[in-house]
Amino acid sequence: xxxxxxxxxxxxxxxxxxxxxxxxxxxxxxxxxxxxxxxxxxxxxxxxxxxxxxxxxxxxxxxxxxxxxxxxxxxxxxxxxxxxxxxxxxxxxxxxxxxxxxxxxxxxxxxxxxxxxxxxxxxxxxxxxxxxxxxxxxxxxxxxxxxxxxxxxxxxxxxxxxxxxxxxxxxxxxxxxxxxxxxxxxxxxxxxxxxxxxxxxxxxxxxxxxxxxxxxxxxxxxxxxxxxxxxxxxxxxxxxxxxxxxxxxxxxxxxxxxxxxxxxxxxxxxxxxxxxxxxxxxxxxxxxxxxxxxxxxxxxxxxxxxxxxxxxxxxxxxxxxxxxxxxxxxxxxxxxxxxxxxxxxxxxxxxxxxxxxxxxxxxxxxxxxxxxxxxxxxxxxxxxxxxxxxxxxxxxxxxxxxxxxxxxxxxxxxxxxxxxxxxxxxxxxxxxxxxxxxxxxxxxxxxxxxxxxxxxxxxxxxxxxxxxxxxxxxxxxxxxxxxxxxxxxxxxxxxxxxxxxxxxxxxxxxxxxxxxxxxxxxxxxxxxxxxxxxxxxxxxxxxxxxxxxxxxxxxxxxxxxxxxxxxxxxxxxxxxxxxxxxxxxxxxxxxxxxxxxxxxxxxxxxxxxxxxxxxxxxxxxxxxxxx
Length: 627
Ligand code: M6R
Hints:
This protein is α/β, with parallel strands linked by helices and about 625 residues long. It contains 18 helices and 24 strands.
């Protein structure tokens, strides 16, 4: 939620800049462009120019702010902060947009997160005579910081320390003050913040895409830390001023990875990047003898051997990846495996102990619900292994081990390539555990790896026929409701297909286990109701295939329009399908890596033909960093 950028350099825009110096506003705006996927209710910037803080902010997407800046430009500056918002406290209005000013307009603050004790703090500050212009918790933090700066310590870093000691909740705060015109101070608790290291300039961002155009040297901050950046220094302390360390790393993707590359949307680009996402996630995971190795695991083998239960925790699409993986992990490892939404997990008093392996799946590595569940699981003594796409993010850092997916940056709010990469990584983990625990021989593991290795080309075959699915999607542009059915691994695929359609096309969509149909959902079927059915391979367990074919007949008999996703060569489905989308043959457990793709294409095309922005669907944000 909310994108945050900070910059401090030496050269104003328009000055004779050296090779590596940039104007603050240009850097901040470019950063906001790249971070807009985190929230797009409103946007704002503040700079220090000729000893004054100047700011502009506007509700709506970043383009509204750009129009405002064109109508009412800011002066060139060397220090700036910028924000793109996903509203929590206070609606998405101009007044609630960040930055919020305090200390008579000399201080500007932007914020990501929720200040939980904002109400008593606001009451206290009102009692001191301060007035508030917005309904936000952020303005309370800004006024508190301004009050401390003015009345206690005339140093922004120290004032931030004192302010943070009083704040509860989750926050990344960035502040600039007119009295210290070459400094940006930031604080983080339970909310993401990364430093970018430049030469004679330094950067801050919610994630590295905030500054990826300028540097690939990044520093990840720990919990409860404050960082003060000037053009030549980066100083990190804790909330009490004690020196602290960040962890420097090199960002392994470049700015072009965060560009559309000729595609009409990031969503379409990312769907098309899926062969590569799966291939790269598989890459380098075997030794020269073909043994599966997962060196990043960092959990003692004896601990992994003694695990007697696995719990997968995640949210949204990542949780569906977990549901898919569960079928494979249980089948291969014979370890009871549960999948639970992270936000439900820790509130139900789950049975978790030292013999439980918790797998936390998260594309962003910042999802607050998942992070809190990770902390809870570790407190109960479980080992936590993260499957994550974002290097340097919080969830892997707080886990015992990490297995990175190598999908590359996922910018579109709706997850696509990360989903397939998550399934791939979870399968690697399942195979590794099966090998380690003696449930599978090396050649059995090698056979599955070989099948996995063929998946990228098969995804490409589906993408090469995308036009058929897109045409079909356009035919359903007026659908009011679409249902999705699946059995076994096809069930979470059905859930994911429904989620994609809901979030992109704002159409009522629901996924069901096909076997559950006659226990209630079949009552929804009426003449013309579109229903996707994900059909398992007829070459797998025969009963599975024939039962789903029976389900198709049951809904057809009641007037449903059936869109069937089946394996090439499956002639049995033809008689009962209004439309068939064939995918290449593959073993049943791996099928979700293929059957998901047409559902993504369908949702993306249908939403696009309705004229919706598929990269930034309404009300959503890419990374959900509040509970
Ligand atoms: O970054 P994460 O994988 O932890 O995000 C989890 C969900 O918020 C995410 O998958 C969400 O459901 C997407 N909008 C789905 O497209």
